[in-house]
C-alpha cells in the first residue's frame, strides 16, 4: 500500500448514483497515500439490438455524455477528498464486471462500492462487487460501512500456504496509515475443552506473523485467536476497524473464482471496507 511502485494505479468504479461517490473518496485518499494516479471508471450499456446507424451513433453519444458528466463529478469529489490527487477518466461500453476484471490486469488496486454499477438492488452485496472481488487479477477493496479513523487494520490468517501476499498487503496498509494491525485466526474444537488449546493457537498465530512484525517494527501488532467456526464472525469481533483484509484462496475465502462463506459474509456485513487480496 505504500507509494512509488512502478505502474501503481488505483481504479475506482462508479455508476450514475450519488452512493457510488463514497468509494471515490476512499480511493482518492488511497491514491494520494500511494502517490499514484487515480482512474475513475464508468461502464455504459449500449444498444443490444440492430438499429439504424444514426440511431446507434446518437445513443452512443448519450451513453458517453452521461458517463462524462458523472466522471467529471467524481473527479471533483476526488479532488475534495484528496487535494492534488492525479486523476484520469475512463469510459467504456459494456458490462461493468467484465470490464473491471479485464482492467484489473493492468492496475494495482480496484475499489468498488458494495452496490451499484448495474448490479441487483436490495441484495446484501451487489453482484458486480461480488464477481469482481472473486475474479480480479489484483486486490479489490469493497467500500462499505465506515472506516474508523485511527482504527486497526484487521487481517484474517488461516493455515493455508501462500498467504504471504495477504500479510504483506495488510502490514503495508497499517504502516501507510500509521495504524495498529490485528491478525485474527478462527479455530474450533470438539465439545470437550482442550486444555491449553487457546494459548497454543495464539502462540502459533504470533509465530505465523512474526517475520512480518519484524519487517514492520513501527506497526503495533496483536494476535487474536478466536474460538469460532465462522472466520467472518471472528474477524468482525474487532471493533472500530478501518479495513479488513482477507485472501482470495484458503479454507474460507475463495474456491474456483467464487467467494465462499467468509468472503460473502464480510462483503455483505462488515462494518468497514474489506480488501480481498489476490
Automatic annotation (TrEMBL):
InterPro entries (alphabetical): Rossmann-like_a/b/a_fold (IPR014729), Universal_stress_UspA (IPR006015), UspA (IPR006016)
Source superkingdom: Bacteria
Listed Gene3D superfamilies: HUPs
Domain UspA, first and last residues per copy: 10-144, 153-278
One Pfam short name: Usp
Family, similarity comment: Belongs to the universal stress protein A family.
Name this polypeptide is given: Universal stress protein
Species of provenance: Amycolatopsis dendrobii
